[in-house]
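Collaborator request, handled under Task 6.
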Amino acid sequence: VLLVANKIDNLPNDQRHQEFWSLGMGEPIPVSSLSGKGSGDLLDLVIEALPEVTSVDQEDESLIRVAVVGKPNVGKSSFVNRLIGEDRVVVSDIPGTTRDPVDTLFQYHNRTLVFVDTAGLRRQTKVKDNLEYYSALRTDRVVHTADVCVALIDASEQELHAQDIKILRTAWEAGKAVVLLMNKWDLVEKDTMTGPVFEKKMRERIPFLRWIPMLFTSALTGQRIRKCLDLILEVHEERRRRIETHEVNEVLEAVLKRQPPPLYRGRRVKVKYGTQVTIAPPTFAIFSNYPNALPAPYIRYLESGFRKAWGFMGTPIRLRFRTGREK
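Structure tokens returned to the collaborator:
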């Protein structure tokens, strides 16, 4: 605690601040907010009193950046606070309390997780002021620099809204691993089948949700919050998984044998071979004589075949089609 005596405008001649020694709170610090006198000394003392900031090596492969995203007031800050066991982030019933991304470091299973609580994302038509607009821009930037996105949805609403889907799709199309948390599960009237029925309904409505792990949680009670940490590590590893080229071609050959590509203008489309070219997210190059001729349903069929072989739960995978000579 620093004791600051304001309105000491005639420094150093004015010594009225000495009277506050009687409070027993240490040396009074004289300042004048009107003229700015003493403010430099005060800032020096503030900086001296601040705790040392834990430095994080951004190149450290054990570091996992986790963006906590969702609509306003779905419990993002409460989730982070419950996870680390302290009120690190301001929590309020008023939507939009969090304006700027807030970083929180957390150690789990010898990995450093950096949780970033972000501003809630509304539909563009409901963004009312410049502050909220730029908060949304910063949130979008955090999503694109994250490794894993934890998307929170208000389970008490018993419905997946268009904005929820947009947030999930933004993270997925950005190539991020995704974990979906149905928060406020303690507020839902339920029986043994409520969760499975709700999960089935959402996965049927949004196809890519089939590949995203879903957890029914409560930031208020702490229900299944720790399980989320295990899922974050799992989807992060899946996002960085690399498959040997011979395995890729064995699976590709089996998938093609089961269902060959459709003809293109009466000509046979040959898928020659494939290889994984990068990770985070896993990206495969598929070589064909007509790389642009494969229709979207067939590309989804190939992706499903890859997922059946290797899982890739919680992470998008990308197929890139290229021309190539016979191999």
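The cover message to the collaborator said: "The longest helix spans residues 130-145. The radius of gyration is 27 Å. Please let us know whether this matches your experimental observations."
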